Amino acid sequence: MGQIQQCAITDNVADLMVSKIQKLPPLARELLRLGACLGNQFGINALAWSVDNSLKSVVVGLTPAVTEGLVFPVGPHYKWIGGPGRCRGYQN
Q1: Residue 16 parent element (H or E)
Q2: For residue range 51-89, what is the model confidence (pLDDT) as tens digits?
Q3: 71 and 80 in contact (C-beta within 8 Å)?
Q4: What are the b/e assignments for 62-89, b being 16+ CB within 10 Å?
Q5: pLDDT of residue 38
Q6: Which helix (H) or strand (E) holds 4?
Q7: pLDDT (tens digit, 9 = 90+) per residue, 21-48?
Q8: Which class in CATH covers the domain with range 2-91?
């Protein structure tokens, strides 16, 4: 909870991020929630392991979040677009 409170973002940005996350399919929301727990950048292998799923299904599951501009792939990792998404990812 302390990490959520440390995120200094405006209500408008936070509301936009929450709105985008809530519109995602359940798998994408769950992957983002777990990814947020792993840090500002999270490895696809760690995420696949944490959900006991294949790398391919995790990549496919994250595609809607990439399309919405919440995260972007960087090699074998995904990175949050700024801190606000990560902070809101904890809550959803």
Answers
A1: helix 11-22
A2: 888 999 999 999 999 999 999 999 999 998 865 445 545
A3: yes
A4: bebbeebebbeeeeebbbbeeebbbbbb
A5: 86
A6: helix 2-6
A7: 999 999 999 999 999 888 889 999 999 9
A8: mainly alpha
Q: Any idea where the domains of the chain sit in the sequence? A: 2-91
Instruction: Name the phi and psi angles at 79, rounded to 5.
Output: -125, 140
User: How far is Cα of residue 11 from the mean position of the Cα atoms in its chain?
Assistant: 19
CA pair distance 19, 43, nearest whole angstrom = 25
DSSP string, 31-86: HHHHHHHH-SEEEHHHHHHHTT--HHHHHHHHHHHHHTTSEEEETTEEEESHHHHH
pLDDT at residue 67 in the model: 95
Cβ-defined contacts of 47-56 (< 8 Å, 24+):
47/78
